[in-house]
Design goal:
- It comes from Diplocloster agilis.
- Keywords: Membrane, Transmembrane, Transmembrane helix.
- This is QueT transporter family protein.
- InterPro entries: QueT.
- This protein is mostly helical.
- The protein has one domain.
- Helix content is about 70%, strand content about 0%.
- It is built from seven helices and no strands.
- Helix 3 runs antiparallel to helix 4.
């Protein structure tokens, strides 16, 4: 039982760390009204381990804090990632649907952060489109590529005790 908890925490911490690094390294592309956040490709990881749910949430939270985001972005942006991660976990048996929850969560939440937090005065539907394009590219395309690459080695990478 103890080893299972340690493994869960370790996997979550590793996922959080990778999310933070990818968010910060690619920060020039990951913030603003057109977002191409490479770290969002990791939102497919709940398909492999439930530890990805807290890992992605904490990773997004820390990434937003370290990137200098405003408080509403830190809170609600991280909440969007948490909602997406839970949705991905719930759809884990339908691999082609796994990227959809984070895409929709971000399309529905991030434009309001941009409008009311950052005072970007573009129309909300337009920002839904721009955020959606970035999410489809990162979660949908890169996420599915990552999913198929990891699937072959899932028993070695995402061991269970």
């Amino acid at each position: 039982m103890k080893n299972k908890k340690v493994l869960f925490i370790t996997q979550a911490a590793m996922i959080a760390a990778v999310y933070v690094v990818l968010t910060l390294v690619f920060a020039p592309f990951g913030f603003g009204q057109v977002q191409f956040r490479i770290s969002e490709a990791l939102t497919i990881l709940p398909m492999f381990t439930p530890a990805a749910i807290p890992g992605l949430f904490v990773g997004c939270l820390l990434g937003n804090i370290l990137a200098g985001s405003i408080l509403p972005d830190i809170l609600f942006g991280s909440l969007a990632t948490l909602i997406g991660a839970v949705g991905s976990y719930l759809l884990r048996k339908h691999r082609y649907l796994v990227p959809l929850p984070p895409i929709f969560a971000n399309i529905l939440i991030v434009p309001f952060i941009l409008r009311y937090g950052y005072q970007i005065l573009l129309p909300i539907p337009f920002m839904m489109l721009t955020v959606g394009i970035g999410e489809v590219a990162c979660c949908g395309i890169l996420g599915l590529i990552l999913m198929f690459a990891l699937n072959k080695y899932k028993h070695q990478i995402f061991k269970t005790v």
